Amino acid sequence: MAQSVAGDLLTGQHVRSLQESRTIESIPDRRLQAIVFIMGLFHLKMAMADAIHRIFLDDNSLISHIAQICPKETSKIQSDPGFCRMHEVIQHVGITSWIEAWRQEASECKSGIKSLSDFAESKPTWEEVCSMANDMARKYVATDDLTEQHSRSDRDRDKQFENMLETSYALNFGDIGQVEALFLPWMMIFAGCGKHKYAAEMRRYLENVHFIYPPRLAHAIRMNILVNPTGKQGQFCALDWVVEHNNLYIKRIYGGKYANHQKSRIIDESLLIEAYKNIRHQFEQMFCFEHRASRHSPPRMEITFKKLTKYMEEKKTYATVKGRNSAYSIPDIMSQGLDVLTTRAHFDVEVYAESLRAGEELEDEDVEVEVENEWSELADGQEEVEDDGSLDL
Question: Out of the domains of life, which is the source (predicted)?
């Protein structure tokens, strides 16, 4: 029976290092062969936020939009943003981006429309709104002509617009199938940002789940890598997030203090954290203390959003401008990433997967197990960007 362990890259390195140190053992249990590491998507999401904040080059890049909504925090965003601050910035810029996208689409559909207020006064029908929404999804999110755009001449291309399409499409996921489909572009983004270990780990996950692991084990991993503790629609979270959440309550909140803060006490009371939380919630509700002392009202962002929307309108963020250049052009990640995965690995995954299904043990000459991973060994001049914990909660 396989035992899954979910965590960040450091946890995976420790698990594989421990298994490698036990390879000399003859019994599978002593080799810890049943332990299967699962990459935590919560830590991967934090790495994505870090990768996005590294891409601030031009007028339509993220850092220029951040300078409009919080000009006093640009130095923090560039140096050490933290996950919560970066997540909030991406959310605010995303809201404003959709507002500007709706304005641009409305101005293209109807003449004389310069703002969403003018569009509302025109009283569009519900069918027109749905048609515009579908066109926006195909145009700004799920475009399928990125390769055609790249093949155009520099005079006819809009490289900033292509970067916007690639980032928006990479962030638009909701299920495990879509998450795995987005691994390919994110592998290239991580490699370009210097996060080669994340690129290698994502590739290892795809190879294990789709080629190496038995079907039942692969299905169990894919169906449980995202969980929904609340049972509400749209409230799925990663396994490592649940672990971090439980660690917060076990070690910090209900772990005791001073002489009571001991390992034995933490283990004994770890099963009671949900009961403690329910008791605290009941007292807060009975005495009307719920969120009255610690939670502040959300900031009013109307003026800030208007400022950023005006900036996007001036820079024509969502309008295609022929000949507009960019300091960096993202290639067709889907096709190139697929080419790297299928042509540069010398590991016969089909033979190995077939042997696992049959329960056979392969000899060294049956299959070549050396994989030429272009992210495992860095090229000359490349440096690995280590995670120093700055994005942790």
Answer: Eukaryota
Specify the 3-state DSSP secondary structure of 10: helix
Look at the pTM and tell me if it is higher than 0.85: no
DSSP string, 77-130: HHH---HHHHHHHHHHHHHHHHHHHHHHHHHHHSTT--SHHHHHHT---HHHHH
Amino acid letter at 69? I
Query: What confidence tens digit (pLDDT) does each residue in 235-269 have?
Result: 777 778 788 888 888 887 777 777 777 888 888 87
pLDDT exceeds cutoff 80 at 223: yes
Alpha helices in the chain (DSSP H): 9-21, 41-53, 62-69, 74-79, 83-109, 116-121, 126-136, 146-151, 159-171, 176-193, 196-207, 215-224, 239-247, 263-269, 273-286, 302-315, 333-343, 349-358
In the chain, where are the structural domains located? 1-39, 40-257+296-358
Two structure tokens written together for 236:
């799925």
Comparing C-alpha atoms, which of 56, 314, 317, 308 is closest to residue 164?
317
**pLDDT interval class at 144 (50, 70, 90):** low
Q: What is the largest CA-CA distance in the chain?
A: 78
Res. 319: pLDDT tops 70:
no
Please give the Cα distance from 192 to 199 (Å, whole number).
10
Instruction: Collect contacts of 325-328 with beta carbons under 8 A, ≥24 apart.
Output: 325/154, 325/159, 326/57, 326/58, 326/159, 326/160, 326/163, 327/57, 327/58, 328/55, 328/57, 328/163
Asked if residue 384 lies in contact with residue 197, where contact means CB atoms within 8 angstroms, the answer is yes
